[in-house]
């Protein structure tokens, strides 16, 4: 991880988010982030620069602890708190810009915020921006000169009005203070106790020199600013020479005046060919008037009075006349509400202008209620299913009615029927409901529950249970069981026996395929030898007269077998089932050794295919003239090489 751009959706950088990312060289923090957690970038030793945006309010404890490669830090104007050890050990720090106005004082006796920041070769320059009015207490406080940040200079804006208690205690490397204000302003700045180093440093005040205009014969100088008490002078804005100015006296009109605006006039420099154009005051022409006849207004369209315009420009005295009076038309009916049997009706009588259509008057008119128009209706008797009604009246124009219902008639019982039938089983009684309904409306009139006695069991076909499979050496068995197909009760159970199977060896490895019992030890050992693995280096080249030890390892050898080293048919060394080593002594010529598997009687063994289980080691000895010469001198000094040839 070398570079990180945090997305705008992130509002908080969590504790330890980039802890120990030593390869991280750059990080971009968006304006969405409001806080940086504890140890968020601790140990990011390759990080060189960080800008903390104006959105951030809190920087956690040890946030940039041990960022030794960090050179530039900018702290935005919204930061209110910086945690302990936040920039501890940032030895590469060269420039620190702080623009936070509401940064809280540090109440801890030794907050260690910038301990060991900067170095003698990377002296630190600190700048407080225009947003800062106070430098918080103990900001750069240290208990000793050795841990103090190596601040070379501080630059303070004229907005700063106070320096907190012990803000720069033990900052022994501070030599220069650059203040963007006057000496009087600085004298009026409230400086807390424990800041004696500020009095020992050289003060540099911001000085401005106004512009010195040039003349026709004398160069001028632009306005500039610089720091006091510097040698040579340190300019903030460097002065710029203003060249000699021209002299213009004989201006001639350019004939470009208008009716209301003056034109311009141009003059040639009295001393050179340079020209200058300025306003020709009082050269405006005035209007060239044209008279226009007016037009009378109607109630629909405004007219206008007589007016004048100018033939050279857009000057005019045009003005509109008010609209004329309206001409009333015959009244019309609107918003009509018809009268009902019980409610009065109404309508609006409206008069409009016959010319423009504008409404001139509106009066509300009332119409009296009509009364009911009665219609008589004959009644209908009730049944047990449907209510009837008495004779009643209605109105043909509205929803008026004298309608009223009659009560229902008595029910007529039908023959009883069976419902909710539950069939009897071999374990439970059955039942059903005997129900009587009305033969007219179908309403339930009576319900009685009747019980039915339970039935006999129904046997299923025979099934097998508790099956124990026969093995190579043991008989098997099972239970022959009959259940009731209705209730599931067990009706009968009998145990049956199955004959044992005997051993099977289809793999020809001396082991039963079914139970895994070794049935033929010799065959099984031959099989295992075919699977065993001897690990030894197949060849090696050594110096002349090297003392050589051959080592081999093995895996998968059966019990009672071991590794042995042969030279030709001669047994040289015998080991265990897992390893063997043979010291062949000094070698002056090529040798061939064979690692074999032997039994306790030292007989080499073969696998199931009849092949001897072995591995060969070819040792080549460097025996040239110079090789032997080297061996001679090695022997004189007792330093002949010892070589172990192993897997």
Outline:
The protein has 647 residues and is mainly β.
Question: Can you characterise this structure?
Answer:
This protein has 647 residues and is mostly beta strands. The protein is built from four helices and 45 strands. The chain has a nine-stranded mixed sheet. Strand 31 and strand 32 (430-437) form a beta hairpin. The longest helix has 12 residues, at 625-636.
Question: Mind sketching the topology for me?
Answer:
Elements lengths: L2 E3 L6 E2 L12 E3 L6 E2 L12 E4 L5 E2 L12 E4 L5 E2 L12 E4 L25 E5 L5 E2 L15 E6 L5 E2 L12 E4 L3 H5 L2 E2 L4 H5 L1 E8 L10 E2 L2 E4 L6 E4 L3 E2 L5 E6 L9 E7 L5 E6 L8 E4 L14 E4 L21 E6 L7 E8 L6 E9 L6 E4 L14 E4 L21 E6 L7 E8 L6 E9 L10 E6 L7 E8 L6 E9 L22 H11 L1 E3 L3 E4 L3 E10 L6 E6 L2 E5 L4 E9 L3 E8 L15 E8 L3 H12 L5 E4 L2
Percent of residues in helices: under 10%
Structural class: mainly beta
- Counting H and I runs of at least 4 residues, what is the number of helices? 4
Main beta-sheet annotation: 9 strands, mixed
Q: In one word, what is the shape?
A: flat
Terminal residue distance: 40 Å
**Uncertain stretches of 5 or more adjacent residues:** none
Radius of gyration, Cα only, in angstroms?
58 Å
Number of strands: 45
Strand content: 35-45%
């Amino acid at each position: 991880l070398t570079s990180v751009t945090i997305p705008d959706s992130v509002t908080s950088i969590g504790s330890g988010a980039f802890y120990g990312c030593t390869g991280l060289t750059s990080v971009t923090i968006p304006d969405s982030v409001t806080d940086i957690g504890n140890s968020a970038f601790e140990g990011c030793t390759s990080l060189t620069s960080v800008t903390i945006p104006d959105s951030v309010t809190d920087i956690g404890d040890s946030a940039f602890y041990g960022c030794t490669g960090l050179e530039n830090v900018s702290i935005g104007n919204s930061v209110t708190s910086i945690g302990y050890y936040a920039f501890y050990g940032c030895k590469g720090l060269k420039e620190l810009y702080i623009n936070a106005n509401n940064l809280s004082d540090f109440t801890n006796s030794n907050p260690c915020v910038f301990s060991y920041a900067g170095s003698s070769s990377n002296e630190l320059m600190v700048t407080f921006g225009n947003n800062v009015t106070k430098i918080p207490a103990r900001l750069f406080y240290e208990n000793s000169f050795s841990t103090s940040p190596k601040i070379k200079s501080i630059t303070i804006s004229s907005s700063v009005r106070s320096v907190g208690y012990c803000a720069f205690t033990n900052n022994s490397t501070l030599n220069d203070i650059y203040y963007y204000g006057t000496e009087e302003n600085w004298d009026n700045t409230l400086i807390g106790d424990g800041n004696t180093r500020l009095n020992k440093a050289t003060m540099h005040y911001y000085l401005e020199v106004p512009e010195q205009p040039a003349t026709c014969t004398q160069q001028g100088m632009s306005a500039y600013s610089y720091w006091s008490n510097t040698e040579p002078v340190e300019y903030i804005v460097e002065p710029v020479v203003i060249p000699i100015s021209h002299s213009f006296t004989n201006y001639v009109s350019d004939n470009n005046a208008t009716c209301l605006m003056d034109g311009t006039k141009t003059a040639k420099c009295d001393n050179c060919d340079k020209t200058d154009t300025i306003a020709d005051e009082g050269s405006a022409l005035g209007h060239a008037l044209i008279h226009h006849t007016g037009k009378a207004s109607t109630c629909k369209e405004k007219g206008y009075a007589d007016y004048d315009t100018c033939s050279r420009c857009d000057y005019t005295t045009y003005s509109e006349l008010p609209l004329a009076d309206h001409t009333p038309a015959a009244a019309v009916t609107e918003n009509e509400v018809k009268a009902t049997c019980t409610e009065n009706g109404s309508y609006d009588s409206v008069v409009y202008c016959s010319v423009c259509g504008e409404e001139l008057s509106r009066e509300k008119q009332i119409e009296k209620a009509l009364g009911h128009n009665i219609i008589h209706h004959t009644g209908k008797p009730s049944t047990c299913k449907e209510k009837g009604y008495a004779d009643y009246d209605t109105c043909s124009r509205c929803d008026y009615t004298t309608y009223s219902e009659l009560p229902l008639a008595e029910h007529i019982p039908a023959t009883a029927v069976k419902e909710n039938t539950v069939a009897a089983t071999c374990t439970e009684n059955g039942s059903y409901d005997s129900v009587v309904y009305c033969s007219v409306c179908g309403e339930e009139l009576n319900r009685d529950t009747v019980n039915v006695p339970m039935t006999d069991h129904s046997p299923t076909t025979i099934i097998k249970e508790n099956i124990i499979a026969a093995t190579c050496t043991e008989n098997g068995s099972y239970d022959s069981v009959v259940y009731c197909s209705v209730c599931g009760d067990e009706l009968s159970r009998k145990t049956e026996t199955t004959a044992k199977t005997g051993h099977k060896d289809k793999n020809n490895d001396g082991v039963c395929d079914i139970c895994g019992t070794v049935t033929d030890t010799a065959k099984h050992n031959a099989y295992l030898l075919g699977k065993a693995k001897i690990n030894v280096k197949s060849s090696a080249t050594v110096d002349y007269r090297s003392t050589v030890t051959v080592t081999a390892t093995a895996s998968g050898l059966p019990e009672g077998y071991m590794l042995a080293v042969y030279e030709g048919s001669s047994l040289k060394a015998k080991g265990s089932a897992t390893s063997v080593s043979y010291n062949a002594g000094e070698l002056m010529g090529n040798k061939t050794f064979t690692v074999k598997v032997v039994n306790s009687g030292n007989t080499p063994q073969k696998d199931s295919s009849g092949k001897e289980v072995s591995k060969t080691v070819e040792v080549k000895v460097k025996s040239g003239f110079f090789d032997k010469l080297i061996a001679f001198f090695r022997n004189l000094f007792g330093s002949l090489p010892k070589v172990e040839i192993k897997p």
